[in-house]
Amino acid sequence: MSTALRFAAKHGNKVWLDETVGRLQNEIDQLQLAGSLVVPKDPGGWWHQYVCPHHHTELLFDESCVDASEFHCPHGCVIEGEAYQGAWLVFKHQSLARVALQAAAVYAAQGEKRYAELSKRLLVEYAEQFPLYPVHPEAQSWMLKGRAFHQALTEAIWSTTLIRAYLLLRDEGIAFEAREQVAIDVFLGLLSESMEEYRHVLIHERNNAENNYTAWLNASLSCVYAARGEQAELEALIEGQGGFIHHLSIGVKPDQFEFEGSTYYHVFVLRAYLIAAEMAQRFGIDLYATTGAEGQSMHGMLQALADLADDQGALPALHDGPLARGPYAREIAEIAEQGLAIYGIAGLAPVLREAYRQLGAAGDEQLEALLYGADRTAADGEPRGSRLWPDAGFVIGRVAGNPLSFLADFGEHGGSHGHYDKLHLTLMHQAQTLTPDLGMVPYGSTMRRSWFAETASHNTVSLGGLSQAPHEGRCMHYEATETSVYAWLQSTGSYEGCTMNRHLLLTEDWLLDWFQVELAGDEPQPIEWWMHPIVAPDVAQQTLTEAAPYRMFVAEKAGDETMLKEHQLPILGQFVPDEGVDAIGAGQLQLTYGLNGGSSGVTPLESSGVSGVSGVLGTSSTPSTPSTSGASSTSNTLRSSSTSGNVTTASVFHTALVQPGDEVIAVQTPGDAIDPSCSLMAILHRRHDRKADFIHVYRAGSAVQLSQPSEHDIWITVPNHPQGAVHVQLTKDKGLQIL
Ligand SMILES: [Zn+2]
Ligand SMILES: [Zn+2]
To answer: Region Disordered: start and end of each range (predicted)?
Structure first.
């Protein structure tokens, strides 16, 4: 029995089912009406090229187009060229494979023959076309090039969608004529040959079995074996080197996070695992409870996502990966539906809701629900606590009663998908994440290296405009109780002779962030503490006249040599603290952020037509990106919470101690990875010295007062609060202590 029918039989919620099926049917009808369901004769290229070279936003894709030779940026640029065409074709091929699956699912649910016929037609056309796609003339096995796509990886993903459609049709008793079956058998044969070959290259020649590619080659092969009824082959694949169990053991850390420390690749690999498990289940082999050598499991990986999401259900963009985009939201929906249905992980309900919201389908289930969905009555589950991922190197702090929570990163660099972001802090409020990791642009954009991977784009510390070295930090101390959580994170590998200690203490009332930097040697350096809020603070700001821009230096490879290339960011003004009153002479700076609600400020991706972000002013202004901002721009492109048109639903109050000699300035930076051309305003707290203490406190509801009677002691006071002042001391061996 097919998945879809099993679902209907199990839950029998006719109304829900009819509505979803009706919507999916309508989508297919529209595409058919537009005449857009035609298999292109050209193979797909690399989707990461699908990005505007001027604005660095992803180009728009309309699946109802039959063919396209010019491509549109959300800001109106019209782009042409082979690379863009190739990228467009990737989306087109994937969209058609999805239509084949969607039509099969609609047929399975309501039995209208024309949907089965459509699905079958697309399948057979692809099967017939597949041998005709040119293998790239310079294709070498080490490049892992595909046939229908530039990359074997894309081909593997696409093939799983098509083969799932094929299996669903067969389950529903749809017969294939001899001619059609021959074409499909040839397609499956070619596919398995190349997938087996790529596996050999990855696992045996490159000794790189843990690669996320391997999981997808396994998934594609599992689909082929299921389609051909080859149980022995599938069993060998599951048990063998680089197979399901081995990959789970080496591609996922014991704390259940994918080894690259990227949320996106975690989801990516998990989805491949779930497809492989679905194929195994067809032979009665249960992989859903299978564990890796150190206890790694799909259940654990799904639970990690439930724990990692913010209160709106949005997943943080740790390391490489988009902040939000349609195809990614679909992937999240597919695995979250299964996490709920198979494992009953209630914490995935908000993640699923947010994925559908980003798809512009708030409250409306899509194909993923029809294929994998469970009963929709599941509650969101228990309030979530703090969690440390000791192997991946992440920590989340949550305390019941405090709307603020935090996420910090101290782990391994993360290979080619890592960012120079050690000790990064994401500050979250229940209503909205205030300082997210800004995500990653498609890899075809120059800003991948020049901004989004760099230290200055993260909420951590850089020295003198240079990014940190790729390195691994450590967690010195982690303690979570009912009323507080304390994480002490340390990094000694960011710069030579530089020791960074970040102390994060979250109580029921506030979050203290004490970031201490110490340099060995006698040479003072600019020590730079960054914070990138996605809403601009409300604060009186002293404008600097003719301020020199902030200079950052990005490593660029030219042949064998690495050169440092200078980029400039305009400085917009200086924040002025109250005059210093305490023993040390530190002043106090107060900032407030008005939150709009809605996670990460991300508007639904498909309803707006523009994958923009709410609350953006002056979208017609010249983009100001590190690569184009030689001349400092003063145009007002800053997002401001007070003028965005959205209702402020909550506020975060930020109090900083500003030591004599410190300065706190506003720097104009690129926007988030969805639209880097919509500038943001970063807060740069810096000091030219051999040592720095950046002491910041955040609170919801109202501001705290800070004072510092001595170097290692601070008092945190909430005015009119019964608790009175809290004395916090920083000690060498035990870190922060509440006295
Ligand atoms: Zn553009
Ligand atoms: Zn990042």
So the answer is: 606-645
